[in-house]
Amino acid sequence: MNILLLTENDWLHGDEVRLTDHRFQHIQRVLGAEVGTSLKVGLVDGNMGTGTITAIDTGEVLMQVALSESPPPRHPYDIALALPRPKMLRRVLRTVAEFGVGTLHLIHSWRVEKSYWQSPLLQTGNIQRALQAGLERSGDTRMPKVHQHRRFRPFIEDILPALISDRAGVIVHPGSEPVLAADQTDHKALILIGPEGGFIPFEVELACQQGVSVRSLGRRILSVDTALNTVLGRQLI
């Protein structure tokens, strides 16, 4: 944990906060902090700064916080990702938070098992916890927005055009297409990533009809999480 994330509910009054949950456990057991120690803190979807411990008691820690720093800039790419299998989804959520992705669209496709949509990980609370873990690792405060689209064609035909009205739209697909590189898209882009094996030809064609271009990550078939890391690593900030 490289930042302690705070919520409005943590405030007692003024600039004083009280932590009693896993953050208290981390401060006490992992950091071994004591009164007077200053730690990096941030308000979820707000500014960052420092928190100075003013008191530690059984089950709680009090801190005086000063939040004057802006969070890191967003990654220039938003992501539309074919829903991965549940055991990979938590890693995907942490990854988009760590890279600073602003918006993640989880979409259906022909190669996505319908049962994946029944995963408890798609519940709002579980999504938020996975995203928070990514923010805590990367030292960010801004939660990515996650949208779920359980039908492919309505997403492509009804929603995608507005998403790429002011930026490039790129679908990455295994094969011989030009390789995605940092200078092959606008600085801002929406990147569509399929399931393992990629989107089927009909899905690629449907996306191209909306103005999306096709790029590859090479001829190898990559796992979803590897493809996601590869895409986001092309435009580091």
Automatic annotation (TrEMBL):
<protein>
    <recommendedName>
        <fullName>Ribosomal RNA small subunit methyltransferase E</fullName>
        <ecNumber>2.1.1.193</ecNumber>
    </recommendedName>
</protein>
<keyword id="KW-0698">rRNA processing</keyword>
<keyword id="KW-0808">Transferase</keyword>
<keyword id="KW-0489">Methyltransferase</keyword>
<dbReference type="Pfam" id="PF04452">
    <property type="entry name" value="Methyltrans_RNA"/>
</dbReference>
<keyword id="KW-0949">S-adenosyl-L-methionine</keyword>
<dbReference type="GO" id="GO:0005737">
    <property type="term" value="C:cytoplasm"/>
</dbReference>
<dbReference type="InterPro" id="IPR046886">
    <property type="entry name" value="RsmE_MTase_dom"/>
</dbReference>
<keyword id="KW-0963">Cytoplasm</keyword>
<comment type="function">
    <text>Specifically methylates the N3 position of the uracil ring of uridine 1498 (m3U1498) in 16S rRNA. Acts on the fully assembled 30S ribosomal subunit.</text>
</comment>
<dbReference type="InterPro" id="IPR006700">
    <property type="entry name" value="RsmE"/>
</dbReference>
<dbReference type="GO" id="GO:0070475">
    <property type="term" value="P:rRNA base methylation"/>
</dbReference>
<dbReference type="InterPro" id="IPR029028">
    <property type="entry name" value="Alpha/beta_knot_MTases"/>
</dbReference>
<dbReference type="GO" id="GO:0070042">
    <property type="term" value="F:rRNA (uridine-N3-)-methyltransferase activity"/>
</dbReference>
<feature type="domain" description="Ribosomal RNA small subunit methyltransferase E methyltransferase">
    <location>
        <begin position="76"/>
        <end position="232"/>
    </location>
</feature>
<comment type="similarity">
    <text>Belongs to the RNA methyltransferase RsmE family.</text>
</comment>
<dbReference type="InterPro" id="IPR029026">
    <property type="entry name" value="tRNA_m1G_MTases_N"/>
</dbReference>
